[in-house]
Amino acid sequence: MKNLSPPRRRTTGVRPTLVPGRCGRRLSFLLAWLVSLLATPAAHALQGNDNCHDPSTIIKEGNKYWIFTTGTDIYAMYSTDLVNWQSGSRSVFNGVQPSWIANRVPGFDRTKDTYWAPECVYRNGKYYLYYSCSKFGTNTSAIGLATNVTLDPASPNYNWVDQGEVVSTSSSSAENAIDPGIVTDASGRVWMTYGSFFKGIKLVQLDTTTGKRLNTTSYWLAGNVGSDGTTRGNSGSEAPYIVRNGSYYYLFLNKGACCKGSSSTYYVVVGRSTSITGPYLDRNGVDLNKNGGTTLIATKGNYVGPGCVGLFVENGVNYLTHHYYDSNQNGRARLSVGNLGWDGSAWPFITRDWLAAGRYTLTNKNSGLVWDAWGCTGASGQAIAQGSGAGRTCQQWDLTPDGNGEYKITNALGGLSADVLNNSPANGAKLQLYAYSGIAGQRFKIERTNANSFVLASVNGNRVVEVPACSTTAGVQLALYDYLGNTCQQWGITSTATARTATALAGQPAAAAEQFSVYPNPAGQGRFVVSLGAELVAGPVTLTLTDGLGRRVYTRTSVGQATLPVETELRAGLYVLRVQGATGSAVQKVVVE
User: Fold this and answer.
1) C-alpha distance from residue 316 to each of 83, 296, 320, 521 (Å)
2) Is-cis flag, bond preceding 55, omega within 30?
3) I need a surface site. Which of 176, 343, 421, 464 has the fewest CB within 10 A?
4) CA–CA separation, 552 vs 176, rounded Å?
């Protein structure tokens, strides 16, 4: 293939020493864990080096997105598109252990122990990095703070300055000072959650300038009291993380056992409160301090023991990060970047599916041409090429997710599947139509980039679908190639006007969208038309658009109209449209370009 893009990804750099941290109990089988990391990967989904345990929330500087993870001297990884990840060239402490740790956590040695579960936020013109240090199996622990004016190791100003202790615990403490999570409340106050399976989860307020603890007041948020009202010795709650959305604060926690590779039982639960200090109740009204928690995501397929969530919002899109243990790769800890949304009752859901089941047009970001069953016969063996978009049935594709971000893709003309010829994972392997059998060469992982486009990787080998040689000529057959991050490998995916179920909000039942449809979607300059079903036309309806933070940005009402034009001047991003009628409401995503 002619190289019309940036150079191929670098495979060198700092490789993390992964001894799990933020989210809980440490490895008693360290040797087995390290052996699993060195195993030959069966590539799947994200590109590059995605070794990761206890990821911090994504934080952006310039054109790079950074994540800090558990590891020797605190490991950093970065991406320019949220798909391909690389190791940072320097760790945070770069071989120097902060001197204060020896007094607070006797015996901690950076050559033998790792820093756990970092979290990084930006304010006051600099980056505040919180981290944990502890001895395995004890609550002799501490959370420290380091600051820097840049995240770029190549900058002459790059210098992490350790600020010392934020909180610490000893063998006589009830809680355990690990797993920091930072949140700003509606009044601008900054708070830190922390804690682990020793007793439970605590919340303290931080000084907005120093980043240190502001006072001695603390609040138990989860896991401190059993359902019988007695104090618990082991809360089962770890990895606290608070998100503010609308009038609620949402507390995400991990339960179950981490750090056991493919045998891990971690899962993520949530509760919410109108006050940052709680109480946090789950959907059934059970206090998280009394073993409550509504399950959001758990083991499914090769995604074992998901944990340590973080939410990064950009251009209206919610990028939800967490780690998991890949059972296809001997339990290797990996990064997942998925989707967080909000249902009609203002409860969150987490999904690795960026697109709901439905019918779509797939347009190449370089050529502007679309996926086309070339020849329009729908016959087995027919090439899948790029063609000039004309709305033909053979240019429409039904996407069916499996719930883990993988999709079966079938042509609307004849129903045959997108198939990699001979199930090959090789560079240059071409796409064709064939009867679906579920083999890896007929399944595609769809990832979302930072540029509102999508990358489709074959589950068999992880090479991505591209237009060979970045051609702009109709009829060029699509093929697999190593990921280079160019627009020849990126696709705009738009629901068709005739398939209303395609516009269902990912993670919601398709039936929720059957009452109305939106066209076009994506909507240029925020202008689109809402077509109402007969059950909505007769009565009054209210249209409401909210952004990724749940803020209302547009509303209108109507009676007796079948089509409702919407004209806004919204910035590019992802929005949620709610249509409220006399018989109920339904929601769907609207992308503004």
Assistant:
1) 18, 21, 13, 15
2) no
3) 343
4) 39
238 is catalytic: yes
Residues 433, 487 contacting (CB under 8 angstroms): no
Residue 310 in 3-state DSSP?
strand
Q: Which of 128, 199, 129 is nearest to 169 (CA)?
A: 199
Beta-strand ranges (E) seen in 153-218 are 161-169, 181-184, 190-195, 201-206
Query: Of the residues 165, 175, 179, 238, which is catalytic?
Result: 238
User: Which domains does the chain carry?
Assistant: 30-351 (2.115.10.20), 358-495 (2.80.10.50), 515-592 (2.60.40.3080)
Nearest in space to 531 (alpha carbons), one of 545, 517, 521, 543:
517
Phi–psi pair at 288, nearest 5 degrees: -65, -20
Whether the predicted pLDDT of 541 surpasses 50: yes
Q: What is the pTM of this model?
A: 0.79
Q: Taking a C-beta distance cutoff of 8 angstroms, is the pair 116, 21 a contact?
A: yes
Distance CA 202, CA 191 (A): 10
φ/ψ region of 538 (left if φ > 0, alpha if ψ in -120 to 50, else beta) reads alpha
Q: Is 37 exposed, middle or buried (0-12, 13-18, 19+ CB in 10 A)?
A: middle
Among 335, 337, 196, CA closest to 254: 196
* Nearest Cα to Cα of residue 141 among 207, 198, 73: 198
The yes-or-no answer on residue 54 being catalytic is yes
Rounded Cα gap, residues 57 and 186, in angstroms: 20
Separation of CA 319 from chain center: 4
- What mean pLDDT value characterizes the chain? 85
> Is residue 326 a contact partner of residue 263, using CB atoms and an 8 Å limit?
no
From the candidates 54, 287, 326, 372, give the one annotated as an active-site residue. 54
Beta bridge partners of 131: 144
Considering only CA atoms, which of 319, 589, 311 is closest in space to residue 451? 319
Question: What mean pLDDT do residues 483-512 have?
Answer: 65
pLDDT tens digits, residue range 87-145?
A: 999 999 988 999 999 999 998 988 888 899 999 999 999 999 999 999 877 889 999 99
